[in-house]
Amino acid sequence: MFLFLYFCDMYINVFKFGGAAVNSAAGLKNVACILKKFRAESLVVIVSAMGKTTNALEDLLKNYINHDPLAVVESYQKLRDFHFSILEDLFEDKNHIVFGEVDSLFNQLRGYIRKGHLFSNSLQSYDFEYDQVVSYGELISSAILQNYLVEEGCPSTLFDVRELIITDSTFRDARVDWKTTESLVQKKIRGYFQAAEEPGPIALTQGFIGSDHQGNTTTLGREGSDFSAAVIAWCLHAKEMTIWKDVPGVMNADPKWMTDSVCLETLSYREAIELAYYGASVIHPKTIKPLENANIVLRVRSFADLDLRGTSVKNIHNWKIPTPIYIRKQNQMLISVSPRDFSFILEENLSEIFRILADFRVKVNVMQNSAISFSICVDADPRKVAPLIAYLQKDYETRFNEGLELFTIRHYNADAIQRVVNGRKILMELRSRSTVQVVTEERSNRVTE
Ligand code: ASP
Ligand code: MG
Fold it and tell me: Is the distance from CB of 335 to CB of 376 less than 8 angstroms?
């Protein structure tokens, strides 16, 4: 009975370290320090690929597709050197098993490319191949961190997340099979904590990746490690989840843009989900729902300064708005469509336009309609937008403006709007009680001083 109560009350905490936290030997040493400090709890640690490894693996794949073997070798070698130089700095013993483990992961990656799995006759889709290649970033970083933690006297066990997070086969954007995942995470991770003889065991695993029911590696979408952590936190009914970042917490504006931005001490789940929706890059949009559903407190704090308390996101009914919150999206464009025969924009046109947008995988950031025209603000990604415009032009009068910015201000006031618009021409403006969105020309196109 006592044991039963003890397990029910198990205080499980989930930590997620992104690429910036593990981009160097010093970064990994800092992660080990943080883990030692918080070791008193049952801890699950989710780690991303080191630094910009995911981008580098994407480049490697691109070189492969472009049939550029020299560039493939070069990008492979660069990645290998990057990881091995971190290993050299971290491990004094050059015969340490970690060198062999990482070597073998790199050999697997090279073998995968060499054997011509990629785009050979047994060709699978690009998305499938992407996941098989890009997942090595997390497999390698987790192997390195695991060995380093053991070396540092921090007891931990590495779990292959492909045996925990089970997804469908939508490669590059896989959907979690919650039921299967929950039972595997409960069995393996909770089981591991329950069996631990001393308090403070660490279960280490990879972010971003999973496995489909056939055992193929899948990924959950770029920047998906926060979501992986939330999935595992949900499965374990964890008390808290902490995302360790290179910023002090969730700020009311990007500090690179507004030098007087401040850290928000608390946020309601609702506010956090709204911010993620409008494009605040500090929170991954899918992350909040599982945490809210299981009432798990999310902390966002700095791995560089442990004295800072960061932001906690939780269930707060009357969240007191401390300040306007600004989200800026650059490189936007506005597309306006009108039926050629001057007919009204009605439901049929709108549903057709939305179907076209979905087909071209163009995400709408803001939209507005008048009697005979419908306007959308989208990221100016020429690969997606140029064919979209060409297609729309067949049936609709289509106009567009480039070189724009989209500002979203939550809990706005007149000063806040004035501050971002600052005399620039406004092309679109949308206001609700809590949010204003303005599309303006970029500063270089400023019309009035
Ligand atoms: N490594 C993956 C990426 O860069 C996942 C993540 O970092 O969250 O997108
Ligand atoms: Mg990342």
Answer: yes
